[in-house]
């Protein structure tokens, strides 16, 4: 199995005040099952045991109900009530929940970098 590419991910530093978003992710495509392995390989070490990912909006192409990543099954859900169509919620039972802004794949690099910086800096 090829090693996944490094995800374009920025997370809020641990230990700060509570935040609305835990970071920002800029996937390369709109294929969530193809993008998820690199995202999960890139999340901070403390974000362990992610069992499901919830998304909303028109951003993602059709997807299965679950995906096998290594030997780990991750359930995929389309949220029925949108917090924001450009977010992904990662859930790890007993460990936590992490919400990330999803920068659409076709976003120009300068705009994507700005969105990610503002999200991590708490100014979004």
UniProtKB/TrEMBL annotation:
<dbReference type="Pfam" id="PF19457">
    <property type="entry name" value="DUF5994"/>
</dbReference>
<dbReference type="InterPro" id="IPR046036">
    <property type="entry name" value="DUF5994"/>
</dbReference>
<protein>
    <submittedName>
        <fullName>Uncharacterized protein</fullName>
    </submittedName>
</protein>
């Amino acid at each position: 199995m090829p090693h996944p590419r490094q995800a374009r991910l920025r997370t809020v530093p641990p230990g700060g005040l509570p935040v609305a978003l835990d970071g920002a992710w800029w996937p390369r495509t709109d294929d969530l099952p193809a993008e998820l392995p690199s995202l999960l390989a890139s999340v901070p070490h403390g974000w362990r045991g992610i069992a499901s990912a919830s998304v909303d909006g028109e951003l993602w192409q059709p997807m299965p109900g679950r995906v096998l990543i290594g030997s780990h099954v991750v359930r995929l859900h389309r949220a029925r009530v949108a917090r924001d169509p450009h977010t992904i919620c990662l859930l790890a039972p007993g460990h936590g929940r992490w919400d990330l802004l999803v920068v659409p794949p076709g976003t120009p690099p300068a705009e994507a970098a700005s969105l990610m910086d503002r999200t991590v800096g708490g100014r979004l």
